[in-house]
Amino acid sequence: VQLQAFGGGLVQAGGSLRLSCAASGRTFGRYAVAWFRQASENERAFVASITDSGTSAVYADSVRGRFTISRDNAKNTVLLQMNSLKPEDTAVYYCAADERVGLLASGDYDYWGQGTKVTVSS
Q1: What burial letters (b/e) apply to 9-38, b meaning 16+ CB within 10 Å?
Q2: Which of 13, 1, 114, 5 minimizes the C-alpha distance to 69?
Q3: CA distances from 67 to 3, 15, 58, 113 (A)
Q4: Of 8, 23, 29, 105, whose CB neighbour count within 10 A is largest?
Q5: Which residues are registered as beta bridge partners of 17?
Q6: Average pLDDT over residues 35-42
Q7: Cα torsion angle, 54, 33, 84, 9, sign
Q8: CB 100 within 8 A of CB 42
Q9: Angle CA 12–68–122, to nearest 5
Q10: Sign, CA torsion 69/70/71/72
Q11: Per-residue model confidence (pLDDT) at position 25
Q12: What does the radius of gyration of the chain's CA atoms come to, in whole angstroms?
């Protein structure tokens, strides 16, 4: 599966952005999808993931209650709605996919999209 992330940009603190992860391939519905983020030279940190069916999601503590992950398998798309953004959310955001469910470590994911940069100004 090939992934492409987009939707990043510059937003003021307290604002919202919606990131999209578009996938190619007819088997997209077999993959769990996650969002990670990387700020400067830090490691890629887990943000959220959603199961292949879309029935279950997991969030990092830092974003729970502010971010929502969803998917539309008919459109081969996963969305990350980000509300109440904070300056510390500034990072390059990546989407990743894997057939296994429940993975939290970036090294476990087999497929990656290119990053999309999110900048939150204070």
Answers
A1: eebeeeeebebbbbbeeeebeebbbbbbbe
A2: 5
A3: 20, 12, 11, 19
A4: 23
A5: 82
A6: 91
A7: negative
A8: no
A9: 15
A10: negative
A11: 79
A12: 13
Mean pLDDT of the chain: 95
**pLDDT for 42:** 81
Q: What is the pLDDT of residues 61-116, one digit of tens each?
A: 999 999 999 999 999 999 999 999 999 999 999 999 999 988 999 999 999 999 99
Nearest to 30 by CA among 113, 112, 97: 97
Take residue 6 and report the two structure tokens written for it.
């987009």
The confidence band for 26, taking pLDDT boundaries of 50, 70 and 90, is: confident
Contact call for residues 111 and 4 (beta carbons, < 8 A)? no
pLDDT tens-digit map of 44-69: 999 999 999 999 999 999 999 999 99
- The three-state secondary structure class of 115 is coil
Backbone dihedral angles phi then psi of residue 91, each to the nearest 5 degrees: 180, 170
